[in-house]
Amino acid sequence: MKRRQNQRRAGFTLVEIMIVVAIIGLLAAMAIPNFRNARARAQAEGCINNLRQIEGAADEFAVENGKKDGDPINFPDDLTPYIKLNSASKIPGCPAGGIYNLSAVGTRPACSLGNSVDPAHIMP
Question: Residue 50 to residues 4, 28, 54, 122: CA-CA distances in angstroms?
Answer without folding.
Answer: 73, 33, 6, 11
